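Hey, I'm writing a tutorial for new members on how sequence and structure tokens pair up, and I'd like a real worked example in the thread rather than a made-up one. If someone can provide the structure for the chain below, I'll link this post from the tutorial.
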Amino acid sequence: MKTILSHVRILFMLLPMLMLPGCISYKLNGASIDYDVYKTIYVSQFPIRASLVYPPLQQTFENELLDYITRNTRLRTVDSGGDLQMEGEITGYALSPQAVTENAYASRTRLTIQVRVKYTDNKQEGKDIDQTFSAYRDFDSSEMLTDVQDQLCSEISKELVDLIFNATLGDW
């Protein structure tokens, strides 16, 4: 009986400590922004400057970028200026054969998209970035590009936005 009571006492002493981590709120979105300094961001359009053009890509990429910033920061988007600025262009949209079969036909095709981003920090020097980001997806060559293009562009845009966010607002 004495042993049970000592275990119960220990449990009551440890119980508040076990509950403590549940009271702490963590937000792990990767953003490292001082919201006392940075309040606004201007994101320009990203026109397509690639030799091969797929018009819906611009809107897909821009929407993904703005949505990601809105979901993962408290920055307010503005139409010009801004504490932070992000502008650029889609510089590459290319198809290339990947796996070649024994009869010299490609069995896989790669769609690669490149985006050049100029990120400007108007509050602090030395944080600016001018960089090209690239991502790709492979698809079976038996599929028509027109059948998989929207899905591939969406997936690649999400990856590009993640890379861009981590290099700029995430400040890894």
